[in-house]
């Protein structure tokens, strides 16, 4: 049994037109933006046209399938929101591959008592500091976080959702009970170079890196760029620059070969060429496969920033907007996926995921498995993100046969 890659390709290209920016050729569908919600409506119409029921829950997750969810279901999916200037496959592949698998099962008249559904989770890319849709499904939300969460520009989650006709507190009612799920399967691009460089077709993912995200403020004193002596300044930018130089040391002393620390968003105030920066606001995202290592790295970042602030006469403040612990995938489901890869005679590697995925939250309530395909040159979160269609076809066939194998289990 094989999926229809041309149909999947057409759907991926059609979805990529929503939020597409002609100037930089990137996709712009940040969580709860107009483009994000347009993509969710598009998906519901596409699923309805294929003969499936569909609904959106209080978190904005879109589900599609057939039949009552009164028995433990096999759920497939990923997300369709994007980072700014993102690519066309990140998340979207897993959602539309789920739809393709369901259509292939129907065309081959596969009848099962187990419900098979797909999901496009909401706000996976962490605009507000978490993976809100998957957290909602797995029951990992609380009212305090929902009402206080905001993005790096100060927009509150509750306001962004309200602008799209959603009540943020309704996300608390989106949780699935563990007995409602038999398994969760996600197909995703690797977003790294390993599979591509080693010329392998499939990544069988064993676990997912933990992630913490901080929003940091270094506050000094804005001053005239021409009259303020260099040794008398409280220059917030110099504090940021010093921290950037500390990252390699922190990883060498406190991290592992799997540790990542990234300063991804920076704002300088007042932001004028002839004025010394009085404040630097920036994000720090740290990752590792071991939560104890994450804690050590986070503590080392805090100590380094405190010392730098004293050196430059700055005030240091930070807000931890999220802390996602590392999560192993289901050993049983990982082995099942590996068996299908071998049966299909694809080359593969068992590997960890350095990026976070919905799977890590779904693993809290069911057996969850994650499948990777190569990203050309390891590129993702960028307009030139690309995966070859033959790899997309291979990965979706692995997803199809993993679902079939899981359905065959008692």
TrEMBL record:
Q: Which cofactors is this protein said to need?
A: Zn(2+)
Recorded hits in Gene3D superfamilies, A to Z, give: 3.30.70.360, Zn peptidases
Descriptive protein name: Zn-dependent hydrolase
Give yes or no: UniProt keyword Zinc. yes
Pfam families under this entry? Peptidase_M20 (PF01546)
- Tell me the residue numbers annotated for binding Zn(2+) 2: 90, 125, 381
Keywords in alphabetical order, please.
Hydrolase, Metal-binding, Zinc
Does the record's keyword annotation contain Hydrolase? yes
Q: What detail does the entry give on cofactor binding? A: Binds 2 Zn(2+) ions per subunit.
Q: Name one GO molecular function term.
A: metal ion binding
Source organism (scientific name): Pseudidiomarina homiensis
Q: CDD domains, per this entry? A: M20_bAS
Q: Which NCBIfam families match?
A: hydantase, PRK09290.1-5
- What family is it from? Belongs to the peptidase M20 family.
User: Which positions in this protein are listed as binding Zn(2+) 1?
Assistant: 79, 90, 188
Q: Which InterPro entries match?
A: Amidase_Cbmase, Bact_exopeptidase_dim_dom, Peptidase_M20
